[in-house]
């Protein structure tokens, strides 16, 4: 299992303190890079070394190439660690993965990070990470991601998800999309 989370008792691998709003792919990629703390200056140097004619590429291609796959893989692994013990997250991942005939949670998470769902899923993660920090759950989750921290009751966890408007909104959107795709 992936265990590369920063050991500090806060969420330092995903920038949930910023708003995510976009209306086109360039804005989406910028938001994505910001929440994943992707160093575009470093990636730009790498791309210029890899592609001698990088400066002649059109702006869309250049923007698409400013991506750090290893960083994204690590952060998505950390997100899974911080969410997998909670059934509502597993349900979201499974519903999203079902869009591509899968039940693999990693695939579901990737779909939730895609253009169509990222704004809503970011709100869910913001609310979740704030709640985890407020309830001093970070270190407990990092040390044993398979289960809910012992100082959090199942009723507290249930109440959080029952009251989570972003979670309800995203789940409803996923179900609507799935229903339209598979009547």
Explain this structure.
With 183 residues, the chain is mainly alpha-helical. The chain has two domains: 23-67, no CATH class; 85-181, no CATH class. The protein contains ten helices and no strands. It has helices spanning 25-35, 40-50, 59-65, 69-83, 87-98, 105-112, 118-134, 138-143, 154-163, 165-181. Helix 5 (87-98) crosses helix 6 (105-112), helix 5 packs parallel to helix 10 (165-181) and helix 7 (118-134) runs antiparallel to helix 10 (165-181). The longest helix is centred in the C-terminal third of the chain and has 17 residues, at 118-134. The chain is globular. The N and C termini lie far apart (36 Å).
Keywords:
mainly alpha, disordered N terminus, globular, 10 helices, 183 residues, 2 domains
Summarize the structure.
By secondary structure, the chain is an all-alpha fold.
């Amino acid at each position: 299992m992936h265990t590369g989370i920063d050991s500090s008792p806060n969420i330092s691998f995903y920038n949930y303190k910023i708003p995510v709003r976009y209306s086109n792919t360039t804005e989406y990629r910028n938001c994505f890079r910001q929440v994943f703390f992707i160093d575009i200056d470093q990636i730009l140097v790498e791309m210029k070394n890899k592609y001698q004619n990088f400066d002649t590429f059109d702006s869309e291609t250049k923007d698409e190439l400013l991506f750090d796959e290893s960083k994204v893989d690590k952060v998505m692994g950390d997100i899974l660690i911080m969410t997998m013990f909670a059934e509502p997250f597993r349900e979201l991942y499974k519903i999203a993965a079902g869009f591509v005939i899968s039940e693999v949670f990693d695939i579901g998470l990737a779909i939730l990070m895609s253009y169509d769902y990222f704004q809503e899923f970011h709100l869910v993660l913001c609310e979740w990470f704030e709640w985890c920090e407020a309830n001093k759950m970070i270190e407990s989750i990092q040390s044993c991601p398979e289960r809910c921290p012992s100082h959090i009751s199942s009723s507290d966890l249930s109440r959080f998800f029952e009251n989570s408007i972003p979670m309800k909104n995203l789940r409803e959107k996923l179900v609507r999309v799935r229903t339209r795709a598979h009547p």
